[in-house]
Amino acid sequence: MSTETTNRAAGDGDVLLRVENLVKHFPVKSGKLIPTEREYVHAVEDVSLEVRRGETLGLVGETGCGKSTLARCVARLHPVTSGKVYFNEQDITDLSPRRMRPLRRDIQMIFQDPYGSLNPRRRVGSIIGDPFSIHRTARGEDRKRQVQHLMELVGLNPEHYNRFPAEFSGGQRQRIGVARALAFQPKLIICDEPVSALDVSIQAQILNLLSDLQRELGLTYIFIAHDLSVVRHVSNRVAVMYLGKIVEESPVDGMWAHPRHPYTDALLSAVPLPDPEHAQQRERIILAGDVPSPIHPPSGCRFHPRCPKARPTCVSTEPELIARLGDADHRAACHFPVEDGEDISQSTPSIAEDQRVIESGLIAGA
Amino acid sequence: MSCSGELGGYNLLSALRPCSAGLVGIAGIFQKGMGSVALLEVRDLHVSFRTDDGIVNAVRGVSFVVEPGQTLGIVGESGSGKSVSTQTVMGLTRGADVEGVALFNGRDLLTMTKQELSQVRGAEIGMIFQDPLSSLHPFYKVGWQIIEMLRLHDKGITKAAARKRAIELLGLVGIPQPDRRVDDYPHQFSGGMRQRAMIAMAMANNPALLIADEPTTALDVTVQAQVLQMINRLQQEFGTAVILITHDLGVIADVADDVVVMYGGMVMEQADRMTTFKSFHHPYTEGLLQSLPAYGGERERLRAIPGTPPSPINVPPGCPFAARCPYVMDRCRAELPPLEIAGEAADHLSRCWLPHNVAARQALRVKLDQSLPVSAEA
């Protein structure tokens, strides 16, 4: 989460985490009395990515696109359906719980809801001290000392060791979550929407804290968020997900300067900017319809039913995630990537109507 | 230190205050230019709740005006009283101690009987809430819920006509195949569609005012863009006034004509949209805008507002923002500043002791930047 320009090059280090062709399906109940065929939610479909040591990879996408599932598969909180996860060049996909245990110290998570992720009946000191008990590394006074050190590190008053979570505000609770994740100096922290539940003024405090900790402790982050301004602020590289697939992946500046995938383009243009002059000038791309069901994802490019640039090829052939239009470090899964300066709100799809999400009323007239 | 420092100056200014009690009728017209009459005018609203921990002062003297066809944005953090204010106006805060006046088309909503109020609610004032799933009844078909709304306020309408109108409304808010979806249950709708159905319901009786409380917070950005665009179009088509309550300054910058910034149950600053974002006066507005990550340009360290919002129980005297304010003076902790004209425009009000003179304020800002390490947080 290097925020200073000098640190922007962070992430040139070696690969800490590599995900290869990861697939995760969840079975669903069919609703029929005698199920003829098992149905699956295709939560993550053939995703490959790398996270380099010391960088922050932002993971963006709308509700249900599979970003949290991907993160949880990486942290081995879900077993994967197929594919491989390498951490530090070691294949951790099928490690037994016992062999996984020492690695769990290195991969930690921070969750979205600072209210739901802390047990309300336990004192803060014991919540933050949990990792020490679980891994049997520190006890008694030693544990207390280490916990208080962690509390200080994240900007909490160590004297509040014996308080309950309810006595803390949302921002302070998120600091407790951060302290707990830091207990064993992990190498990788997965932040799953760490600031979405917080007010803007508190959100900035937590983002600054995460950035300081990264610099001091050399952490690597996978940062999941739906707020694109936050993702831009914290990330070195960004991967955009849509219906279980990564549709675009690039260093953050390249992505914002020239998004290649029409979905990314629409997503970026939909963000409301806190600047009325800007808001009036810019051209919005309003996507029609909703995200289709991940149980029966569309054929070809999964975005084609909503894409303003859709062509028959998009329905029949799935695009690869490769560098397009002469980009170097910028990959997009689109047959017809967006050119520099192109305005896709002027495009009209050339595929059959019944393959599109048709919106009636005011939206269609947009 | 400031021109409002003199007691005389303050009295004069407060007399000019458009929303101060007593003078509203005339000054309200002054404020917005001739000819416009306020649709909703809330004056000095106080709301408190008695709890086991003490009296919670959720709203402490809030005044605002909504003009016909305009959008008023109310922005603030959790606990700032933004939702409680509007809910109280609609008679939705049971068990609260309420003081003040809320004139809707000249009638005081706060003194109405239950029957009178329920005739206004839904017919003349529509409402949308944050969570569209919990505001739709899961047992009843979406269409049925809209039809109920229509028939409740229009006894003469036939079932068939109401159904036809419900289909029309669903189509209007962009639900595909409305004649079929009208018989769906809420769980068959996606989040964005539910919110659109809620809007259809709120607009069913062509209300003069639509109160939207965090209407897009639970939605994804692309769907949020759809919903905001739709509210905007409905507003243009039917001339509905909108109160948009949100914590998202981006949404405010997009759609609001006038902006009220709330903190600690009070209005901190009130101005038109451009002034709020470009030449704000209050340090809280400044803090809010600065704590947002920039969308373009350099990624600098965020300027977080240190500390946390004040407790609404046992409110200290003085400015509620004093404990977190970088410009804080002794006076701020002792005396509550009045909401008074702070800029060149008469409708730019701010509740702060800082000088109104832009140059003087700028000098303070520069001085502060030099003396204060940026990382002074928490």
Describe the main β-sheet of chain B briefly. 8 strands, mixed
State the shape of chain B: globular
User: From N to C, what is the helix and strand string of chain A?
Assistant: EEEHEEHEHHHEHEHEEHHHHEE
Strand adjacency order, main sheet of chain B: 6-7-8-3-9-10-12-11
Distance between the termini of chain B: 28 Å
The percentage of residues in β strands of chain A lies in: 15-25%
Number of strands of chain A: 12
Helical segment tally of chain A? 11
Contiguous low-pLDDT stretches of chain B (5 residues minimum) are 1-35, 373-378
What's the gyration radius of chain B in Å? 22 Å
Main β-sheet description of chain A: 8 strands, mixed
What structural class is derived from the secondary structure elements of chain B? alpha/beta
Explain this structure.
The complex is a heterodimer of chains A (366) and B (378). Chain A is built from 11 helices and 12 strands. Chain A is α/β, with parallel strands linked by helices. Chain A has an 8-stranded mixed sheet with strand order 6-7-8-3-9-10-12-11, with helices on both faces. In chain A, helix 3 (124-134) crosses helix 4 (140-153). Chain B is α/β, with parallel strands linked by helices. Helices cover 37% and strands 19% of the residues of chain B. Chain B contains 15 helices and 12 strands. In chain B, the strands form 2 sheets. An 8-stranded mixed sheet of chain B has the order 6-7-8-3-9-10-12-11, sandwiched between helices. The longest helix of chain B is centred in the middle third of the chain and has 18 residues, at 221-238. At the A-B interface, helix 5, helix 6, helix 7, helix 9 and helix 10 of A face helix 9, helix 10, helix 11, helix 12 and helix 13 of B.
